[in-house]
Amino acid sequence: MENQFSRTQLLIGQEGIDKLANVRVAVFGIGGVGGYVVEALVRSGLGEIDIIDDDNVSITNINRQIYATHSTIGKPKIDVAKERILDINPACKVNTYKVFYSDESSAQFEFDKYDYVVDAIDTVSAKISLIMKAKEYNVPIICSMGAGNKMDPTKFEVADISKTSVCPLARIIRNELKKRRISKVKCVYSKETPIKPKKEDIEIKNNEFKHKIPGSNSFAPAVAGLIIAGEVIKDLIGYKHC
Length: 242
What we know:
Layout: H1 6-21, E1 24-28, H2 34-43, E2 48-52, H3 77-88, E3 93-97, E4 116-119, H4 124-136, E5 141-144, E6 156-160, H5 168-179, E7 186-190, E8 204-205, E9 208-209, H6 220-237
Parallel strand pairs: 1-2, 1-4, 2-3, 4-5, 5-7
Antiparallel strand pairs: 6-7, 8-9
Helix pairs in contact: 2-6
């Protein structure tokens, strides 16, 4: 009998479908990258998902984030995401956390219950903390490196953090993990040299250029998110390409 996962079953079999229906994945950050991770996981039949994000939808999110539309501006991203998830798969259990992940907030998450963790957080300190916590509980984790200031989605690669190059964020994370003697962290990163926004396009405040907010678009973060989701799904079902 046909169902919403019939086409997926043709690729991964009933065993794969059953595995996905019985796992729990936590996605930390559901913006440009994380939103597409969630989308692909849910459309693949994930049984339970935790979504963590403290932000509300803003007008500047519309160019790249799947939950951002004019009708959702001002709404918590986790609420918009949950509504969409349940519309796609009403059987999926959704746990929401409107909080910014940090060492201080980490205690409220059930790492011992997670089958996989996705890091789609923007800040270095939070990423390091999340990696350390996943390692502590021996939970598989995959991390998103910099997807901002990129125009070539074909430059994204999957690699261990120790094998990354070019990406400035990956370099920082790699060095921080070395200090902590942490190895073997899967990540998605880009070998594209980051684009520097033109001065006339950078917001000026108090006679100083604001460089911290990266440029972004509708396709680079989305591709990174879909690649991450694919890695999570393949790892969870033990998929090996022949």
